[in-house]
Amino acid sequence: MILENTGLQGMKSDLAHLDQSGEKLGFVRWQWEYRRATYDLKLVDSASSNEYFLRINTRAVEGKLENPDAILQIEHVYIGRATFPHSLEYESPVPPAILDVANQRVQALKQLLS
Length: 114
Known about the structure:
Shape: globular
Strand content: 35-45%
Largest sheet: 6 strands, antiparallel
Number of helices: 2
CATH architecture: 2-Layer Sandwich
Number of strands: 6
CATH topology: TATA-Binding Protein
Helix content: 10-25%
CATH superfamily: YugN-like
Number of domains: 1
CATH class: Alpha Beta
Distance between the termini: 25 Å
């Protein structure tokens, strides 16, 4: 599920600041290449024990990712349920409690990047 109207889409930050801000909120930069990176936050639903990941996609608009001064632009914010062995499923409903936490973290990241 793509989270719409988060206020993050289009925001820009240097890599070092985005890494530091994301880490404060529990995000980890997982997938990355020279021009693209994703930041993931793992959320566990206590009722079902399902794992969900809040994923923020970014793209370098200036420089390359090995440079902490590279400028990244946030593209999309997704949330999906983890499936075995290493995939995310974006179509199933997300529990309201998980969506609440996800929206809180998105807003906190937005504040840190502003």
